[in-house]
C-alpha cells in the first residue's frame, strides 16, 4: 500500500470525536459500543478504581498481534490512532482485508483507565505499570499478563507517547516517532526475535523517512526486566515499543497521530504479507538513538542578573476542567549551546524579566515574560 493511499484512508477514517491529549474510557466507550460485528469487544478486568479495561479482537488469521495503549494514562496519541484504525477496518473497501484475513489482533485501547482519567503516567496506586512486569502488583498489570498468556501473541506492540525533549540523535531534529526492539538480557544480545522486531521497525522507518526525514529515533536498549517490553521479549515474543513524539507546533499531537496510524498500517501490512524472519534487521541499526536536545522555548542571549545567558522553558501539562493545558516553566538559566528550542526568541542582550518585572528564576511559571519592555507570550498561538 502506497503512502498516499494510507493518507487517504486516514483522512477518511479519522475518528473526529477523539482529539487533543485527554482521552479516557468515557471518550472511547460510545465508540466501542458502535463497532460492527467484525469486532469482538470484552471487559478483561477492572482497574484499581474499578473502571473496566476493554479488549478488542478482530481478524481470523494465524499470526497473533497483541497491542496495548495508555499503559501510561497521559500518553493518548496511540489510542486516537487505534480508533482511526478500527474505523478503517470497518470499511470493507479500505484495502486492509489481508491484515484481518491473515492476522488476529487483540487490542487494549486503555490499559490504565485511572491514570487516563487523572491524566497521569501512574495508576491510582501511584505505580508505573511499565515497571511492574515482574511483581505484577497491580490489577492492570495482571490483566495484561493474563491476556499475554491466553492470547499467545506472535508480536507485541507496546504503545506509548514521549515528551518534547527528545531528538533523533544528538541533532536539531526532533524525534517525532521513536521505536525500540527491547533487550531480553543484560548483554542486549540481538536475538532472533529481537531481529524480527527490528525488521518490522526498519519497514516503518523507511515509510516515515519519506514523511518526516531524520525525525525517527530509537531508544537506548539497556535491559530492565521490570519493563513490560523487556519481559515479553525475554519470553521470545518479538516486541515493538512505539513512542508518539512531537512535531513542530503540534502540541495536540494530531500530526503525530497520523504518523502513528501510518506506522500501524505499514507494519501490519508487512507482517500480514511477508514471512518476517529477522534477516533484514540491520536497517534498524542505522536509526539514530534518541538524545534529549530540545526545550519547548529558548530565549537566546538574555540579560539575567547582569549576565548574558539563555533561558530554557519547558511546558508542563496540566489538566484543567477536562482539558490539557500547557504551562511554561523555566527549567534552565545558562548558556544552552547544546540545546535547541522548538521555538527560539532572540533577546539581543536585553533584560528578560518575569510578568511582574522581577528577575527570572528557575521554576518560574507563567505564560509570558517581559523583554525590552514588551510582553512576550511563551505559548504559540
Automatic annotation (TrEMBL):
InterPro entries: Peptidase_M14. The keyword Ion transport does not apply. Coiled coil: none annotated. Keywords: Carboxypeptidase, Hydrolase, Metalloprotease, Protease, Zinc. The active site is at 282 (proton donor/acceptor). It comes from the Bacteria. Its cofactor is Zn(2+). One of its GO terms (cellular component) is extracellular space. GO terms for biological process: proteolysis. It holds the Pfam family Peptidase_M14. Belongs to the peptidase M14 family. The keyword Cell wall biogenesis/degradation does not apply. Gene3D superfamilies: Zn peptidases. Residues 14-302 form the Peptidase M14 domain. This is Zinc carboxypeptidase. GO terms for molecular function: metallocarboxypeptidase activity; zinc ion binding.
